[in-house]
Amino acid sequence: MSKRSPRVSKSAASPTGYQFGTFQGVFTPSILTILGVIMFLRFGWVLGNVGLGLTLLIVTISTAITLLTGLSLSATATNMKIGGGGAYYLISRSLGLEVGTAIGLPLFFAQALGIAFYISGFSEALSAVVDLSGWLEYIPFAITETRMIAVITLAALTLLALISADIALKTQLLILMAIGASLVSFFSGSAPAAGEIITADTVIPAKLGFWVVFAVFFPAVTGIEAGISMSGDLKDPAKSLPRGTLAAVLTGYAVYMAIPVFLAWIIRDDRVLRVQPLIMIDIARWGELILLGLFAATLSSALGAILGAPRTLQAIAKDKVLPPFLAKGYGKNNDPVPATLFSFLVALVAILLGDLNKIAPILSMFFLTSYGLINLSAGLEGLIESPTWRPKFKFPWWGSLLGAAACLLTMLMIDLGATLTALLVAGGLYTMMKRRQLKAHWGDMRYGILMLMVRHAIRRLIRRPADERNWRPNILVFSGSPQSRWHLIELSHALARGPSYLTLATIMPTESWSAERVQSLKTSIHDYLRKRDVEAMIKVFPSSDVLKGAEALIQAYGFGPLEPNTILIGESQDEEKVPAFTRLIRLTHRMERNLIIVREGKSPAKEPEAPQIDLWWRGGQANIGLMITLAYQLRRSGAWQSGKIVLKRMIQDESERADIDTFLGDFLENQRLDMAYEVIHAGGKMPFDLMRESSAEASMVLIGLRHPEPDEPEEAYVSYYRRIVASTHGMPVVMVLSAEKMDFSEIIGVG
Q1: pLDDT tens for each residue of 326-345
Q2: Burial level of 717, CB count in 10 A (0-12/13-18/19+)?
Q3: What is the dihedral of CA 267, 272, 276, 280, to 10 degrees?
Q4: Going by DSSP bridges, is the β-strand pair 644-651/502-508 parallel, antiparallel, or unpaired?
Q5: 445: Cβ–Cβ under 8 A, 6 or more apart, which residues?
Q6: CA within 20 to 30 Å of 81's CA: 140, 223, 357, 511, which one?
Q7: What per-residue confidence (pLDDT) applies to 363?
Q8: What is the pLDDT of residue 544?
Q9: Distance CA 515, CA 253 (A)
Q10: How many Cα atoms are found within 13 Å in the side-chain-facing hemisphere of 160?
């Protein structure tokens, strides 16, 4: 009984919650997160480490990645109905639930760590100007002043988010005005005296490298996640997300290019910039406004993360990936209370264990991964040119793929180990989701991606014909019902392992043919094969006669270069159908398809310790190359791996033994074939009697069929085939007829 996979609902796509507009719902949380803790506490540090030119380059590269992501996001957002969950929703609906979860969960933790990141910035700034150490004596456990402030701030902001997201976002206009006033104060300021900052006792830290500094700065431009995460609470996501996101990115870029130029102009000693994190206060005309802007920006960024992270977690839980209690929303606006409390716990742990510079690179890696997949999904959508890809916002697919490549390259340059760790985590989550086999009720682009790859591969294969080095047995097996002729499927599956492909064909009587019955039969066969770990394509073909249907299918089945080169069929048990069966053999030969005819013989009286495959070689070259190739292919799989292959050659005269023995030994050595050989003197016995006696303990006996001559009468080949069948009756015989235009002697020589 097959286990039913849980179904994923569409509920995440339905509009719920608040109905914010572009300015309040996207631009304001995005720009307030961009113009946040990095700008106030780390911009001077960045400039002091790498200089003006490289600082402007860091800002430009970071913004370019975010801009490309924003453009890709705009294209995606105007092509679908956006639900809650932000980047997770976009990725899961484009690349599938498994990929969405593999990125959505790390993205949630990145957002939750972002809460700790912004609150740590606020606490660091507040503790630098206000002495609250006296309060530590009232706390029953050891904690620093900065972390005490952070924990209290986290609790207060979480409480505000639980009360109402509307109230939280409405305060952001005042915060935006405060940041604007702080920037005016900064650009109106002048340089402080270096002696006021650097004294004889000041320890000057060494300069850090470009990519280390980049990793610390990059979270400054990831503010668009704050706007994306509110996708489920927007009145018109398709309009608000592109406009608000792009406006925030460009505004942030303008500010971030101006600040280092001004700093470099008035502060000539880069040591000052490295030792004074609050240099903007020392420069500003009204330092209090800088503090006000810093406190407002960091708190606003933290509040945006507190609003965004739970909504990502809630969307993942709605898709039945996580426990259902995390999907619950309360009140008329569906506020994610359980997810908010869980986000609070994650942020609390980060605050107690981490510091600002340690958290920043982790955020960079998680955000770059999500940015890369947003770009990748938009690029692939445009590349495969699906009819459903009709975004109102046009952006070329190559631009999105460029953004994805830039994200990956930046991750590698920042920290190779962290990049590999992020990819391993995502890969592990993806594998776990595949095993859970959740069924999503939405379409994604994976089928289109595979079709694009197949189309490209087929076009290349057409221009590059098959050769001996790359030959594989691509098998069409006429198995009928898998339950009744399982030995045919088992053998063909063993032969077609690896890059080969296998097609199971079933001939259905024309009178019982219907689309519903065909689909039901395909589903039944697929389920039967999946339980036995057999991968194969299924072809159900209508015909009033099984052999005529097989003839038609051999002539018609395949696509371009992807045609079966080998036909595998069971031996006909009906004496009256032997003439029709031999016509099938002759047709297969004319079509230049190799043919394998299988008979399930009686089990040997004594089961061998290891299976043995006997190959009988009469001395000609027609079939032996294919026979040896098939034997080796068979020994690579399953129970046959412990077996041995024995090449047997019959002689009529004992005087021939020395020459044949030398020939076979040299042949096996030259072709590097790991098999035994045996030269057998007939001694007056009939050939098939000798074969039956010599191969009595063999698990499988491979013999070659004579090629039908072009002008040979049908009766002659029928008579020949009947003689072979009668002479080998009861033996586990596999008859092989090589017809493909391929030099199999070269194939067996390839090491």
Answers
A1: 888 887 777 888 999 999 99
A2: buried
A3: 0
A4: unpaired
A5: 94, 95, 377, 380, 381, 384, 386
A6: 223
A7: 63
A8: 86
A9: 59
A10: 20
Which DSSP helix (H) or strand (E) runs through 736?
strand 733-737
List all residues 6 or more positions away from 32 whose beta carbon is below 8 Å from its beta carbon. Answer: 172, 175, 176, 179, 223, 226, 297, 300, 301, 304
Check residue 751 and give its pLDDT: 33
The class of domain 600-751 in CATH terms is alpha beta
Largest CA distance in the chain: 116
* Cβ neighbour number for residue 588 with a 10 Å cutoff: 24
For the purposes of burial, counting CB atoms within 10 Å of the CB of 730, is it exposed (0-12), middle (13-18) or buried (19 or more)?
A: exposed
Question: 182: helix, coil or strand?
Answer: helix
Cβ(241)–Cβ(74) below 8 Å? yes
CA distances to 18, 41, 104, 227 from 306, rounded to whole Å, are 16, 21, 16, 12
Task: Report whether 125 contacts 298 (CB < 8 A).
Answer: yes
β-strand partners of 464: none
Q: Residue 533 half-sphere exposure, CB side, CA atoms within 13 Å?
A: 4
Task: In whole angstroms, give the CA distance from residue 716 to residue 91.
Answer: 65
Inter-residue contact 118 to 305 (CB < 8 Å): yes
Dihedral, CA of residue 717, residue 723, residue 728 and residue 734, to nearest 10: 0
Task: Give the DSSP per-residue string, 138-154.
Answer: GSSS---HHHHHHHHHH
Q: Where is 676: in which H helix or E strand? A: strand 676-681
Report residue 300 as tokens: 């606003």
Matching CATH topology for 473-570 and 600-751?
yes
Q: What span, in angstroms and rounded, lies between the C-alpha atoms of 719 and 495?
A: 30
Q: How far apart are CA 696 and CA 691, in angstroms?
A: 8
Mapped onto helix, strand or coil, the DSSP state of residue 572 is coil
Give the tokens for residue 737: 């007829």
- Name the nearest CA neighbour of 725 among 628, 625, 546, 599: 599
CA distance 716 to 337: 84
d(CA 120, CA 305): 13
Superfamily of domain 14-316+324-440: Amino acid/polyamine transporter I (1.20.1740.10)
Confidence of residue 666 (pLDDT cuts 50, 70, 90): confident
Residue ranges of the domains in the chain? 14-316+324-440, 473-570, 600-751
What is the rounded CA–CA span in Å between residue 287 and residue 299? 18
In CATH terms, the fold of domain 473-570 is: Rossmann fold (3.40.50)
* Look-up of token digits 């009906």: 574
CA distance 228 to 248: 12
Is the confidence at residue 427, as pLDDT, over 70? Answer: yes
Going by the DSSP 8-state scheme, the letter that residue 130 receives in this structure is: S
Contacts 24+ apart (CB under 8 A), 133-138: none
Cα separation values, 552 from 542, 547, 565, 681, 741, Å: 10, 9, 15, 44, 21
The average pLDDT across 634-659 equals 84
CA torsion sign for 220, 221, 223, 229 is negative
Cβ atoms of 539 and 582 within 8 Å: the answer is no
Average pLDDT over residues 51-61: 94
pLDDT at 667: 81
